[in-house]
Amino acid sequence: MSLRLGDIAPDFTAETTQGTINFHEWIGDSWALLFSHPADFTPVCTTELGKTALLKGEFEKKGVKVIAVSVDDLASHNKWVPDIEELNGVKVNFPIIADADRNVATLYDMIHPNASEKATVRSVFIIGPDKKIKLTLTYPASTGRNFQEILRVIDSLQLTANYQVATPADWKDGEDVIITPAVKTEDAAAKFPKGFTIIKPYLRTTPQPNK
Which CDD domains does this one have (predicted)? Predict the structure, then answer.
C-alpha cells in the first residue's frame, strides 16, 4: 500500500554518512524532509544534493531537518560526497542514508517498477513533528526537483497547521491567505484581527496571520 497524507511515517534504523540513526528519534520535535535519489554518481542527483546543502540554512530557519536516501551502500556515498562538494562549492552538511537492502525504499514505496526496477524515483516526503506525513511528491529520474517549491510548501504547511487558513495558488510567504470555510464570517474578525476581505461568501482573504 502506498503511504498517504496523515499516515505515520514508517520508522527505521539505518546507516548514514553521519552515523547510525533511528528515524523517529532523529526527527525529534522537528519537521523533516526525506527525499530519495536514483543512484550515486549520477548528474541530476549531484546537483540536487548540492542544492540541498546550499539551502540547509533555509531549512533550519523553518525547523526542518533534511535527509537523503538511495539504494547505494555507505562506501559509495562516501566516495560520491567529495564530487558533490567540489561541483557545488559546498559541504554536504546533512546525512545520506545507505539503503543497499532497499529497506527504506520499500517502506516508502520509492521503487516504481514501471519506471525502474532497481533505482528509486525522486520521492519527497515532508513529515511533521507528530511523525505524520504532511506532503508527498514524486518526480521521475529525469527531472530534478524545484527546491524553492519545497521551501514554499513547507511555509504553507507550517502556517496552515497553526491557523485556520489555506494558501491560494502560487502563494508565497508574506502574501494574503484564505480563511477556511470552517470559520464563520461572524467569527472571523475575532480570529483575524488584521481584518479580512469578502470576495465571495466562500472566498475570504486575510493578511498572513503570523507575519
Answer: PRX_1cys
Provide the grid cell at 139: 518526480
**CATH class assigned to 163-206:** alpha beta
Of 45, 105, 126, 154, the catalytic one is 45
Which pLDDT score is estimated for 1?
Answer: 56
Tell me, yes or no, if 45 is annotated catalytic. yes
Which is it for strands 122-127 and 31-36: parallel, antiparallel or unpaired? antiparallel
**What is the sign, positive or negative, of the torsion defined by CA atoms of 123, 44, 111, 76?**
negative
- Residue-wise pLDDT for 84-124, tens only, equals 999 999 999 999 999 999 999 999 988 776 565 556 768 99
Determine the Cα–Cα distance for residues 119 and 141; give it in Å rounded to an integer. 9
pTM as predicted: 0.92
Q: What is the CATH number of domain 7-146?
A: 3.40.30.10
Domain boundaries, the chain: 7-146, 163-206
Strand order of the sheet with strand 197-200? 165-166, 177-179, 203-206, 197-200
